[in-house]
Amino acid sequence: MCANYTPSRLDAISQHHGVERALFNFPAEAFPGYMAPILREAHGLAGHAECVPAMFGMVPHWADTKLARQTYNARTETVAIKPSFRNAWKRNQFCIIPAENIYEPSYETGKPVRWRICHAARQPLAIAGIWEWRPSGPDGLPLLSFSMLTINADGHPLMDRFHKPGDEKRMLVLLEPAHYHGWLEGKLVNEAEVYRPFPADRLVATADPLPPRTKIKAKTMVETSLF
Description:
Blueprint: E1 5-7, H1 10-17, E2 35-41, E3 49-56, E4 73-75, H2 86-90, E5 94-106, E6 113-119, E7 125-134, E8 143-152, E9 170-172, H3 180-185, E10 203-207
Parallel strand pairs: 3-8, 4-8
Antiparallel strand pairs: 1-5, 2-3, 2-5, 5-6, 5-7, 6-10, 7-8, 8-9
C-alpha cells in the first residue's frame, strides 16, 4: 500500500505525456490528504488528456475529506463494489498519477525503514488510478480526489521485501506508455495485461529514511467496509 510518493514536476509531466503545462502548486512529497497532479481525459475532448490538481485519497460527495486518510489505495479485486470507489469505477473515471518515485516501508531491520522505489531507467512512473468529484472542498470550491489501484504482489522479487512480515504483499498498478490513452478512455479496464505486476528488474529500490525531525507519525488505519 503506497501512502507516500514524489509527484512528477509539471514540466516533466508536460514533456512525457504531451499535455499542456499546468499552472498550480503542490507539495514536493504527497501523503493522504495532500494535493497532487493527476492526468485524466479532458472534458469533452476524447483522446486528449489534461493535468489537474486533486487530493490524494478518494473523497466521494457524501464523505468528509478526512476519509482521504483511508482511501488512498483501492484494491483491484474490490474497487468495483466498495462504496468509496464504485461510483468512479462505474463512470470510467480513470486517471494516471505521475510520480518520480514511490515510498514503501521495509521491516528487514526489525523496524520500519522508508525505501524509495523508482524506474530503473529513470523514467517517470505512471500509476493507474481512479478519480472522483465533489461540489465543495475545504475552501468551498469543487474538489477532485483520487486513489491508486493496487494488485497482489506475493512472491514479487522486489515488493516482497516491503510491509510488515506476514501481511499480504501489494503493489501499485504501473502503466506502460502504450497503455496511457487506453486507460484514461476506459478501454483497458478488463485487459489482464494491465494488471500484471511490474517487472522487478525495471525498478530500483534504495533506503531513504525520513530525517527524525521531519518524520510524520502515522495514524493507525482501521479497515472498514468503505475501502
